[in-house]
Structure formats: C-alpha cells, structure tokens
Design a protein that fits this description.
Chain A: This is UBC core domain-containing protein. The complex is a heterodimer of chains A (about 160) and B (about 525). With about 160 residues, chain A is an alpha+beta fold. Chain A has helices spanning about 10-30, 115-125, 135-145, 145-160, and strands spanning about 35-40, 45-55, 65-70, 80-85. Chain A is built from 4 helices and 4 strands; from the N terminus they run H-E-E-E-E-H-H-H. Chain A has a 4-stranded antiparallel β-sheet, with helices on one face. Chain A is globular and about 50 Å long. Helices cover about 20% and strands about 30% of the residues of chain B. In chain B, strands 6, 7, 8, 9, 10 and 11 form a 6-stranded antiparallel β-sheet that branches. A 5-stranded antiparallel β-sheet of chain B has the order 1-26-25-24-21, with no helix packed on it. A 4-stranded antiparallel β-sheet of chain B has the order 2-3-4-5, with no helix packed on it. Chain B starts with 6 loop residues before the first helix and ends with a strand. The chains are: A alpha+beta (about 160), B alpha+beta (about 525).
Chain lengths: ~160, ~525
C-alpha cells in the first residue's frame, strides 16, 4: 500500500480511509439497522452496496420489496452516497430513472451521517414524502391535492412492479 | 396379465377375461410383444429428404427437402400385395416393397423458406387436437452482434426467424410469427414449448418468454410476454402513467427514457430476487443475524443473480412455467452442463415465483425422482403420450436410475447431470410401444425414445423381451445390409418410430455428405 508513487499517495489514503469508514459502518449496521431494511456490499466491492426496503404496512408501498443500489464515492463520508431504486416505485422523491433525491443525500449531507441513518431516512420516505422539493412535481402535487388518488396509483405500482 | 405368449391364446383370453380396472390399455399394449417390426428392407429407394418424425397420432410423416426450402408431408400406409400361391410366407416380397412410395403416400409439398431463410430441420412441434404443425425458418446467425435495443451481450443474433403454423391435413399456411434480430434456440425445439393450445417461445437475446395461443381458427395470438414485464398490461400501465412524469421535461421527446429505463430490474428478476430475499429473511428472526445472513447469502451474490439469463422454459401446467436460469456463456454453448444453473417455478397468472432451486439441489432431484411425470407434461389430448416409460411410472426404468445413482462417484455430480435434462424439450420422446420398458429391454446407448442422433455401429440393435429374459424379440439394423465397407468412418443414425404401427425408419448418415441409407423396419 505504501509502495505507490508520490502522486498516487494522497488518493490511496483517502480511498482506504473511506474504506475503513464503510467497513466500520457495516459492522454497526447489523446492530442498529432499522427493523425492515437490510443492506450489504455487492460481491467484494465495499463501495457498491445493495439495500432492500420492505414497504411498511399502512402505506401504499405495503407488501413491496424494493431493491436499491447504494454507491459510495471515494471521498466518503465527505460526499454523500448515491442511492438509486432498482425497483420501480411511484414516489415524488424518486425520479423516472430511479434516482433518489432526499435532503440528507444532497445539501443536508453531513459526514456524521452513516449508512444506517440513510436507511432510516429512506424508510421514512415511504411514510412522509418530502413534498416541498420533489423529483417529480406531478406526484407531489397529487399527494398534496388528492392523497387517495395518489395512494391508489402507488398501490398499483407496488403490486405490479415491487412484489 | 396373459398366461401365454402365443398371440392366438392371448386373443382368446382377451375375449373371455375382463382385465383389472384401468389396465385395459396396458393389456392391449402387450400384444406389441407379438407384433414387432422384425423385418428390414435395406437401403430403400427413397426421395433424398431429411426425415423429421411421425406425428404423435401417426397420421403424418414430416420431412424436409435437401435444400431446406420445402416441407414434404407423407401419409404412412401399409405395403399391400397379393400372392396367388399356397405358401406365401416363404416368398420374397415383391419388388415394389423396396420403394418408399409403397409405404408412404406424399400428401403435398409446401415451400416454407423464402428470401435467405432456411428451414430449421430440427424444429417441429405438433398440435394433435387440431392437426396443426409448427415449423421454423431462419436466416444465418451473426455471432458478434452488437447488443442493440435492450438485447444482452454475448448472445448471437439472427436477422429473421419465422414460425409457421400449418394445417397438416392439406399444408395450408394458417399464420406466422416473425422475430427480427433475435435469437431463439431452434435446435431440437429447445426454445419453444407447446402445451395444449399454449406456446412458449424463449427469446434469448431479449430475455423474453413469449406466450402465444394457437386458436382453433389457426391464428397465433399474443397472450403475454414475460421478462421485462410480468403482466400483459404492465407496459401500457407504465406508459399511461409516465405521461405525468415526462410532462415537465417538455422538450418534445415524449418517449425519451431509453437509457434510464434499462437500469431497473426486469419484472421477472424483481420477482425472483424478492423471492430469494424473502426466503432468507424469514429463515432468521433475529434482526442482527438476519442482516449477517443476507450479507453473506444474498448481497454478496446479488450481481450474479442479476446476471442470470433465461435459458430454457417448459410448461408444468397451464399456469406454471419451469424456467432455467444460467450465465450468458451457458445459454448459448451446446455443453451447458458444466455451468451452474438455477430453476424457478413461475406462476404466470399470479406473477409469483413459487420455488427456486440451484441445479445441485437434492430437494429438486428427489422431486424429480418421485414425480418425474409431472415434469414430462404433454398436452391433454394425446392419449398414448401417457404411456411413455419414466422412472416414476416404470419399475425397470426406476431400477436403471437407481443403478446409475449407486454407480455415480459423487452424488452432487449425479444430481447435476440429471438436472441437466430439465426443463424437458417439448415432444422430444417417441410414444412408440417398442420403447415401453415394461415390454422390451434395449441398450439405451444405441437407441431410446428420446429423439436424438446417435453414433451407429454395424451391429444390429436388439430388443429383448422384458418378461422372458434372454428371449430376443426383434433386431434392428441401420445402414446397408452388408455393413459398411469402411469400418473407420463415423456413422450417425436416427430412428423414426411410428407411434402405433410396427413400422420404423432408420436413417444412417456418414459425415462425408454421402447419401443417407434409409431402412424400413416393419412386420412382414
């Protein structure tokens, strides 16, 4: 690890320190993970994770199993991880390509946050969408204007694409 | 069942005794012990066609001409001749017996292949209830085709594959279905499965299982396509919903989500992954252990599951499909046994995965050993298909399986080998009673009910009575009567058995494109 040339030296340390941080979060995760989510690295790549969220009862996402890709940047935790839904979902904070735009994953990111916190935030997204700054304004409008209609559509999406 | 082996005694016995309930067909089939295709006419003068098979009802013999353009269909008849002397059994057969036309009457010949396409001579499915035949023609394969429009990398492409539905009675082409720049495994009908009126066609390149219905009118109707989506109206639903989503883009390109759309899991993959996930989730109740377990068993292999492709499909009943998944390399290569593979049972009505196994799973093997007839499904209409020997309905076949199982050096290797035959290819077995293992014993290396080319030797193939061991019932010898002059040339042989009559064709070919030698085996 120390054999690298002078130029690669700083990036090597940053990668390995982010790696250590992810490793640490992984061990903590099994203790403090929310009860209806799970996550883990894809294969042996620490920077590519998969998370699974179970749609909570009492929401239109009930019964759905949602898979998400979580990609950690090499300068993690100074930059937030990127979260993408691999399962189709009808939600105002998920754009048509599956990209999640939550406050804490963008401007409100803090290096103090952990993967468990991200999972908590994703989970609460099911119950309380961030309608003030949506990725899909149309869905947010419907949610605020006609929640029954919104829930009906979201339930249909869950049944069709998330089981 | 019968006290005597004498055919006359058996006929009398049949007249005076009622068989045990439900055994009348089994008893009738025992007459095949007396009536065997023991006489061979060597090197019959016959048209230079590649003979495909007899239909399961015995009404048609299907063949293709040598340039792979035309379908030629024959009606099996029986050699008739008269003899005006006393003892006609000792007489030689008349000269016309050497002619193919004395046994088969040509019904018609139709051109199926057009503009660069050739008939796939390994492909033929028969819908017995309507006497419809399904044939395939295709253009040449392109091996290094770029994966365009959602196609997967590493699967060859064929510019045009056409499935033709014909009424076999008169050769009328009823309907056709064309696949462009796609790949369907046509060899031995692997890529298609017919069950009753439902037809499943597997597009390897686009990873879709197309379910079609063959209507009595002769129309091929799309029922659904499983892969990217599960329900037939999923795509429509998504399109109508995404109106809201693309509104705010407002740059005139309405349907412009091409790249993003591929990043979602396909409908079938989502079902598969959530089934596997739920299984592991429910195994553990403690959350800490659960996360650990998922990490090791699920997330670690996540990409491997994502990379799995559909290899082959068969119907288990009208709702359930048995789907084999594997890696891209294994799906295209001929020898897929060495690749790990997975089996899923999918209910296409509820769109749920019902079960999932790896090809080394003991559990699946034991199900297969006990209930193999549930895997060997055939359409309801065909009666004689119910009498094909399998290790679940035939004690001798079971003994043979046990013997192979005990001889196997490693049980897991044995399981994998057995599982390699699943899902079964559609209509790949001959229903001929001469392959009934409760009637006859034969060397399965040289001949069997499974429709495959086999390496041929100069020795005749023996069919030995099952009930009276050591009694040879009949012999079949493919190739010229005198044997081949050159013993070193490799010879390939295929057998076509009529499903009811004591009549079979053997076709022997050498590798050097010499004309094939066709023998007719029948009861004189």
């Amino acid at each position: 690890m120390y054999g690298g040339g002078g130029r690669t030296w700083p990036s090597t340390t940053s990668v390995s320190s982010s790696g250590k941080r992810i490793q640490k979060e992984m061990t903590e995760l099994s203790i403090e993970a929310p009860s209806d989510c799970a996550a883990g690295p894809k294969g042996d790549n620490l920077y590519h994770w998969v998370a699974t969220l179970l749609g909570p009862p009492g929401t239109p996402y009930k019964g759905g199993i949602f898979f998400l890709d979580i990609t950690f940047p090499s300068d993690y935790p100074f930059k937030p991880p990127k979260v993408v839904f691999k399962t189709r979902i009808y939600h105002c904070n998920v754009d048509p390509a599956g990209n999640v735009s939550l406050d804490i994953l963008t401007e409100n990111w803090s290096p103090a946050l952990t993967i468990s916190k991200v999972l908590f935030a994703l989970r609460s997204m099911f119950t309380n969408p961030e309608t003030h700054k949506p990725a899909v304004p149309g869905i947010a409008h419907l949610y605020l204007g006609d929640k029954a209609k919104h829930d009906e559509i979201a339930t249909e999406w869950t049944l069709r694409f998330a089981r | 069942m019968f006290k005597s082996n004498n055919v006359t005694a058996r006929l009398f016995e049949r007249q005076i005794c009622t068989p045990a309930p439900g055994t009348s067909i089994h008893r009738a089939r025992r007459f095949y012990e007396n009536i065997v295709p023991s006489y061979t006419i060597y090197d019959v003068e016959c048209p230079d066609h590649s003979f495909r098979k007899f239909t399961e009802d015995g009404l048609y013999l299907v063949s293709f001409n040598r340039n792979h353009q035309d379908l030629v269909v024959y009606r099996p008849t029986w050699l008739t001749f008269s003899c005006n002397e006393e003892d006609c059994d000792t007489h030689d057969l008349p000269l016309k017996a050497r002619k193919f036309e004395s046994f088969f009457t040509q019904l018609y010949s139709v051109t199926l292949a057009s503009s660069g396409e050739l008939i796939c001579k390994d492909f033929f499915l028969y819908m017995e209830s309507n006497q419809f035949g399904l044939f395939a023609t295709s253009t040449a394969q392109i091996h290094d085709a770029p994966p365009t429009g959602g196609a997967i990398q590493g699967v060859p492409s064929v510019e045009k594959i056409t499935f033709h539905l014909l009424r076999l009675e008169d050769g009328a082409i009823l309907d056709e279905r064309v696949f462009h720049n796609d790949y369907v495994n046509l060899a031995h009908s692997i890529g298609a499965f017919l069950y009753d009126d439902l037809l499943a066609i597997v597009s390897l390149r686009y990873q879709r299982i197309h379910i079609l219905q063959i209507r009595d009118s002769g129309d091929l109707v799309d029922v659904r396509s499983i892969g990217e989506f599960c329900r037939e109206d999923d795509e429509l639903f998504l399109d109508s919903n995404s109106q809201v989503l693309v509104n705010h883009v407002g740059n005139g390109f309405h349907h412009s989500l091409p790249e993003s759309e591929t990043s979602f899991l396909s409908g079938l993959k989502q079902r598969l992954l959530s089934f596997i996930f739920r299984g592991i989730w429910n195994e553990e109740t403690d959350q800490t252990m659960r996360v650990q377990c998922l990490k090791k068993k699920f997330y670690f292999h996540f990409q491997d599951y994502i990379d799995l492709i559909i290899w082959k499909v068969q119907f288990l009943d009208r709702h359930h499909l048995l789907i084999k998944f594997g890696s891209v390399d294994g799906g295209v290569s001929r020898n897929a046994d060495s690749h790990p593979s997975f089996f899923a049972v999918y209910n296409m009505e509820t769109t749920e995965i019902v079960a999932f196994y790896q090809n080394s799973a003991d559990e699946l093997y034991f199900l297969f050993e006990l209930f193999s007839d549930h895997f060997h499904v055939s359409s309801k209409s065909s009666l004689h298909m119910n009498f094909m020997s399998s290790h679940s309905n035939n004690i001798h076949a079971l003994e043979q399986l046990r013997c192979t199982k005990n001889k196997a050096t490693s049980f897991s290797q044995f399981v994998k080998k057995m599982m390699a035959s699943l899902p079964f290819s559609c209509q790949s077995q001959s229903p001929s009673p001469y392959f009934d293992q409760s009637l006859f014993r034969f060397d399965e290396k040289l001949i069997s009910a499974i429709d495959r080319h086999r390496q041929s030797t100069d020795h005749p193939i023996k069919f030995i009575s099952r009930r009276q061991p050591n009694i040879l019932k009949f012999k079949m010898k493919p190739g010229p009567e005198a044997g081949s002059t050159d013993g070193r040339t490799k010879k390939i042989c295929s057998f076509l058995f009529h499903p009811i009559l004591p009549l079979a064709l053997s076709v022997q070919q050498t590798l050097f494109l010499q004309a094939s030698v066709v023998n007719i085996h029948f009861r004189r």
